[in-house]
Specification:
The protein has about 325 residues and is of the alpha/beta class. It has eight helices and 14 strands.
Length: about 325
């Protein structure tokens, strides 16, 4: 039998006034190497044509060797919901989730695009009737997805996958630090972008419970109480409704304000060991010499976090 051929996929994240792109490869069981990367800002009122031009320029500047991409979808109307259903077949589950998406988005079925992730053991890919089916529903209007796909195609790219911030964050953390998540310890990872925060609790056999919140302000330092309340709510709901595995650590990444009192206040209020984590500086991550030598910008930046997770579709 011939070996499986994998697509050479780059990750691209568009939103909050910038584009970031990344391509990674695996070296051994844990090591992930960044081979190509870059970012570029654009005006908040930029048209799709102008954003496409920024993407094309960035592709040339970074000498990205592939045009096949996994794109990150950002939308204020995105439906991201945890679900738990007993005793459903796969077909019944699909029908139940479609109804839930219609009710949440208040759109007709032909206007909705949805997918879901089932939380189940890695060594048991099949779900039997009689189990508690649990996981995450992701749904959004088809118009939003089509606009994103058309933008990428306009930039000369070939989009084969679309992902959201929470699940790309899960992929990144588990790829670099998966050993920290097990049946005795859960980890809450929070990625701050300029306007959004992806809150993800990883537990059990790499199960996920995600939540996304939106800030109307670009400064998380002025929204710290709002952030703390939402992290606390996610932790409470997880413990009461989802799983009893204790959360052992809170990990902050992305646009974490540099003021020491920011992290200290979160730690003191929530009461969990709290760490600020930069994936690009992780011991299981390496940056190629060609990326390090690029003088136009520093890729070791919070701008890269989501695109790194999207790029892992390549490995």
């Amino acid at each position: 039998m011939s070996a499986e051929i994998k697509e050479d996929i780059a990750g691209i994240n568009i939103g909050d006034g910038f584009v970031s792109i990344a391509r990674v490869v695996r070296r051994g069981r844990k090591k992930i190497v960044l081979t190509h990367a870059g970012w570029q800002e654009y005006a908040p009122d930029a048209s799709d044509d102008e954003i496409a031009q920024v993407i094309r320029k960035l592709w040339r500047k970074t000498r990205m060797p592939t045009r096949t991409v996994c794109g990150g979808l950002q939308s204020r109307s995105l439906c991201l919901k945890y679900f738990r259903y007993p005793d459903l077949s796969q077909m019944e589950l699909a029908s139940a989730l479609k109804l839930e998406a219609e009710e949440t988005l208040q759109l007709s079925p032909d206007q909705i695009m949805l997918d879901w992730h089932l939380n189940r053991p890695k060594n048991d890919p099949y779900t039997q009737l009689g189990e508690q089916l649990q996981g995450v529903l992701v749904a959004v209007s088809k118009d939003q997805v089509n606009r994103q796909l058309n933008l990428l195609k306009r930039a000369g790219l070939y989009p084969v996958l679309v992902d959201v911030g929470c699940t790309s964050l899960c992929n990144l953390y588990l790829a670099l630090r998966g050993e920290k998540v097990n049946k005795d310890n859960a980890v809450c990872v929070v990625n701050l972008s300029r306007y959004n925060a992806d809150i993800t609790i990883l537990y059990n056999d790499h199960y996920i419970y995600p939540r996304t919140i939106i800030s109307r302000s670009a400064e998380w330092s002025s929204k710290i109480q709002y952030l703390i309340e939402n992290i606390s709510d996610a932790l409470l709901y997880y413990h009461v409704k989802v799983d009893k595995t204790p959360v052992a650590q809170l990990v902050l990444t992305g646009f974490v304000p540099k003021e020491p009192q920011f992290v200290a206040q979160i730690h003191d209020t929530i009461g969990l060991p709290t760490e600020v984590w930069s994936p690009l500086k992780d011991e299981n991550f390496a940056i190629s010499g060609s990326v390090k030598s690029a003088k136009e910008y520093d890729v070791v930046t919070p701008l890269m976090t989501t695109s790194l997770g999207l790029a892992l579709r390549n490995t």
